[in-house]
Amino acid sequence: MASRPSYQWAIRSLRDSVQASVYRWRNPHRTLHASPGRPESQRKPRGFSEDSYAYQHARQRVAANVARKGELREQRAAALGDPVRGVRTPFIESLSSALPPQATTTDEELANAKSSPSPEQPSPSPAFAADEDHLNYYLTKPELEENLEYSRILSEPLISVNRENVDPVKEATAAKAHEVGHQNAYEAVSRIVSLANANNKERTRANVQRIIDTFGRHNTDSHLKPKAPSLQSMYSTVAEQTPTPRAGPDTGSSEVQIGILTAKIRVLAERYEGANRNDKVNKRNLRLLLHRRQKLLKYMHKKERGSQRWYHMIEKLGLTEATWKGQIAVK
Question: Whole-angstrom Cα distance, residue 84 to residue 279?
Answer without folding.
Answer: 17
